[in-house]
Amino acid sequence: LAPWIPVVGLEIHAQISSNSKLFSGSQVQFAAPPNSLVSFFDASLPGTLPVLNRRCVEAAVMTGLALNCSINKKSLFDRKHYFYADLPAGYQITQQRVPIAVNGSLSYSLCIDNKMSQMVTKTVRIKQIQLEQDSGKSLHDDTRSQTLVDLNRAGVGLMEVVMEPDMCCGEEAAAAVRELQLILQTLGSSQAVMAEGQLRVDANVSVHHLGEPYGVRTEVKNINSIRFLAKAIDYEIQRQIEELENGGTILNETRAFDSKLGCTVPMRDKEGKQDYRFMPEPNLPPLILYDAKSLPANVNHQQVINIDWIHERLPDLPSVKREKLVEQYGILPEHSFTLLNEDGLAEFFESVVKQTQMKPKKVIGWILKDLLSYLKQHSLTVKESPVSSFLLADLLNLLEKKEISSTAAKQVFAELWKGEGKTPLEIVKEQKLELLQDQKELEQICQAVIDGQENEVIMMVPG
Amino acid sequence: AALKEGLRSQVSAALKEGRVTPTELCQRCLALIKSTKFLNAYITVAEETALKQAEESEERYKRGQPLGVLDGVPIAVKDNFNTAGIETTCASNMLRGYVSPYNATVVQKLLNQGAVLLGKTNLDEFAMGSGSTDGVFGPVRNPWSYSRQYKEKSVPKSHSEDKESNWVITGGSSGGSAAAVSSFTCFAALGSDTGGSTRNPAAHCGVVGLKPTYGLISRHGLIPLVNSMDVPGILTRCVDDAAVVLGSLAGHDPKDSTTIQDDFKPFELPNLTDVSKLSVGIPKEYHAPGLSSEILALWSKAADLFKNAGAKVVEVSLPHTRYSIVCYHVLCTAEVASNMARFDGLEYGHRSDMNESTESMYAATRREGFNDVVRGRILSGNYFLLKQNYEKYFIKAQKVRRLIANDFVKVFRSGVDILLTPTTLSDAAPYLEFIQEDNRTRSTQDDILTQAANMAGLPAINVPTALSERGLPVGLQFIGRSFQEKQLLTVAKWFEKQVQFPMIQLEEVTRHDNGVFQYQKSASFS
């Protein structure tokens, strides 16, 4: 049987981190009382007009630059029409013709064979980034046959990031999304927390044989975590392969991921293909951005955005941060990945390194094995760690000065974890874990042991 | 005071000097509205709030601190502008009973100047139409139907014929506003102009109708028909008044991203005496099929007027004029389909009792809420926006629009300062005759002389010129350069002075006249 080549592309919606919405002044806030953050424009009251939020544009430019995109100095807004209860105007304002950024790339890393010892770097092309409005939320109450509509989210700014079908499996997609998430969080352009709906991912999946054209693709939605993303994609790939090998065909349809069953199911509310009747948004002139060269002389800086100015102020992206960590501390690349993967862990590590004489190469073991596994076991974030960097540094200093053994150190660490406020030294004293430095004392103890085990000793000596 | 030409005479002076109070003025207007109710010019009369505003204005005058020329001046607003606390219906069942929580920017600006808002005027439903006959509150009657001038000229076909049935339309879609100004129930009114909706009824009702340059006046709060062509329109009894209202409305609005950023400085119109440096263009394509010989003659006479006064009068060509109607229909219906999508009964407005499903509720709501004209345009517009049709129709129409706009650019670049054209094909038709043809047919016919200016975003103004043989008003149109309202209005004012358009002789007005309306008869408050 000829091998199947799976092809995976992603459409990611990242909610822009801003005080107010994309086209109106109402606030952006998670979990506010229903319909408490709705301006006249958000409610689509007749006669209201969109006014573009500068911060949202800056967020999109930052993200485009971080993803190596070309920023379009002129981009346009369009209306995408469809009727739905959570879309008050009957259309969404988006960028269909000319989006704000195009042709970028994202590099991400995977470990081969789950060993964390061999990392490989891959790249996925970014087709475009576009600005668009988020919709409201609708909740269907089947018992009362009614739909409840909350427009708090309606009009919140989104960046849609389209990743080309350069990925081949769930693992790659998950890694790419994770990296994107880290980038967005570093930039501050989106908080990108999937659980709060700030990052939503739809996957486009198809399979084909080598040399043949791409197969029919399905769109998989309703994926609520990165872990489920990988699962959903892998399931769908498998499903398509099985279907085709059994002589079936793949429908160009939208499927939802059922996390409980671990499978994808057809979504029934899409009837046929929608014609969105795209039309230019007449109330918004083209969005013009400038760079240092094209910036007009007498201009009100409140009114223009300078791409170069934003570029100069970009923070270190995760990939750069990792490189710096490896270079500065001599840790392995895969270590740097784990450090950045956990919110606050890199900072914790650096803080410990500053406060201890122990070499970073040795500190890293404590951070990644001991601290991290304890955090995971107790489902705690680095911020919530009962062991502060100060305490850990203290402990590592004792170890470094050979005042305790590494076994003892682990015991102390376990005790520190209880968070009873004792210092490492106090615990060592309490549990009598001090290393004996006195040679004579050591000999006495050893002799006593041997003396008590005469038979075993006799057996050992001839051999 | 006589030395200060064009300045504060009549109403404004009278208010300042205490010869009349804002309350009296308001009361007279309200009384006249009542006695001219048969015109059906108003949908909502905001009597209480108007009197309150008048009272507040009076206080300011007593303190010697009026807000400006418009302080205490009664005005009316077309019912497609949002007015906080006062119903805004767009003459549609969809918005019957809808009370907006905010004021349109232009309304707010007028109120900030102390103007007294008498009420909301009648229109074609959602401003779609050229007769003001297709709203749910019924048609508006042209006040000139009841003028002595018209009655004298009209020959009843039989003695038994009810002269009531002979009334003529106002034109549209801002017919209510035009009728309100024409019948002296207010001093100025806001209309809207998308394809001629301010200039057309202005011509038929014998008042000044100004369509400003697109982007000069904020559309925030104007319920849109075609976002890329709509402008708020100004209706007054004389050109000077239009300039005053323009002065209080124009300028950048941060709430409307299509308004220009440049500073706008209100201006007073000079009294032009020398037109020798003026170049007037006569676009030959405006000699449109169906243009009445009467209006053709008037147009010619007007051209001669300029020529004889020393202006340079040249024939020019706007070759793409004949494509403008079709182009307008594609673009207009496409935007309408889009703009009307929000009327689904969920957040505001009419909601059908049908509740089997969201879709069925939408469908029933929109069928019940919209009239045939609106529904027809929505269907057409959606057709043109379909993926398979978009290139053929919408994109093509945009290209043609560019050509039409370029026609004007070329002509203005060739040294012409202003264009002179007819505003309408004929004088106002009797209602019974008008409704023989459907809305679309009528719009197609009636918009031809006005809507190219909307396509190109140019300022244009109707100036009442003369009475027709039937004793009804006929106006002529001036089209100017982008953002050159001052020049446009200056020339219009000169023309207005030359033609001396007669005042309407309405019985109702005479009845209410006890000295107060001398200000109105003089037709000027600035």
UniProtKB/TrEMBL annotation, chain A:
Keyword Protein biosynthesis: yes
UniProt catalytic activity: L-glutamyl-tRNA(Gln) + L-glutamine + ATP + H2O = L-glutaminyl-tRNA(Gln) + L-glutamate + ADP + phosphate + H(+)
Annotated source species: Menura novaehollandiae
Keywords carried by this UniProt record: ATP-binding, Ligase, Nucleotide-binding, Protein biosynthesis
Gene Ontology annotations for the cellular component aspect, listed alphabetically: glutamyl-tRNA(Gln) amidotransferase complex; mitochondrion
An individual GO BP term: glutaminyl-tRNAGln biosynthesis via transamidation
InterPro entries in the record: Asn/Gln-tRNA_amidoTrfase_suB/E, Asn/Gln-tRNA_Trfase_suB/E_cat, Asn/Gln_amidotransferase, Asn/Gln_tRNA_amidoTrase-B-like, GatB, Gln_synth/guanido_kin_cat_dom
HAMAP family: GatB
Identification of the protein by name: GATB amidotransferase
Gene this chain is encoded by: Gatb
Coiled coil: none
Presence of keyword Iron: no
Domain Asn/Gln amidotransferase: 347-461
Family under the similarity heading: Belongs to the GatB/GatE family. GatB subfamily.
Any one GO molecular-function label of the UniProt entry: ATP binding
Lineage: Eukaryota, Metazoa, Chordata, Craniata, Vertebrata
TrEMBL record, chain B:
Keywords recorded for this protein, A-Z: ATP-binding, Ligase, Mitochondrion, Nucleotide-binding, Protein biosynthesis
Superkingdom, taxonomy of origin: Eukaryota
Amidase domain segment(s): 28-489
Residues making up the signal peptide according to the UniProt record: none
GO molecular function: ATP binding; glutaminyl-tRNA synthase (glutamine-hydrolyzing) activity
Keyword match ATP-binding: yes
GO biological process entries: glutaminyl-tRNAGln biosynthesis via transamidation; mitochondrial translation
CC terms in the record's Gene Ontology section: glutamyl-tRNA(Gln) amidotransferase complex; mitochondrion
PANTHER family: GLUTAMYL-TRNA(GLN) AMIDOTRANSFERASE SUBUNIT A, MITOCHONDRIAL (PTHR11895:SF7), TRANSAMIDASE (PTHR11895)
Protein name: GATA amidotransferase
Organism name: Menura novaehollandiae (superb lyrebird)
Origin organism lineage: Eukaryota, Metazoa, Chordata, Craniata, Vertebrata
